[in-house]
Amino acid sequence: xxxxxxxxxxxxxxxxxxxxxxxxxxxxxxxxxxxxxxxxxxxxxxxxxxxxxxxxxxxxxxxxxxxxxxxxxxxxxxxxxxxxxxxxxxxxxxxxxxxxxxxxxxxxxxxxxxxxxxxxxxxxxxxxxxxxxxxxxxxxxxxxxxxxxxxxxxxxxxx
Length: 159
Known about the structure:
Blueprint: H1 9-20, H2 26-33, H3 37-49, E1 69-77, H4 82-90, E2 95-100, E3 107-113, H5 116-127, E4 132-139, H6 150-157
């Protein structure tokens, strides 16, 4: 779970350094931020522990693994089966993330596929999950803005 107290300017500067150079040593981060190595290590450990600093997994491109198509599937779910549906979706390797959303649909499911027929197969697997009443698939044609938090970190670093 993310830090409920928020990120202070020093944390934000540490995170900016790690975003710029994810393999930087703690000593290098400490030097660039202008804090002691032990302080940097303690803060990085806390940021990892409280969920502020996400896993390395977010940096791996599905495209490099052969999954060149990205799609978003919205689904309407039988509410009493939501946990069961979530577990079933987690078992589908091509499902990258699932968000509960407001509106006429209940879930936004981010998936990847190797090609169009593979996407058809994945959408069919999802629709076959007990508790999913209906679904709709939208193929990503082009990414205009990739995942980013650097602008927010810069704002936080300014205090």
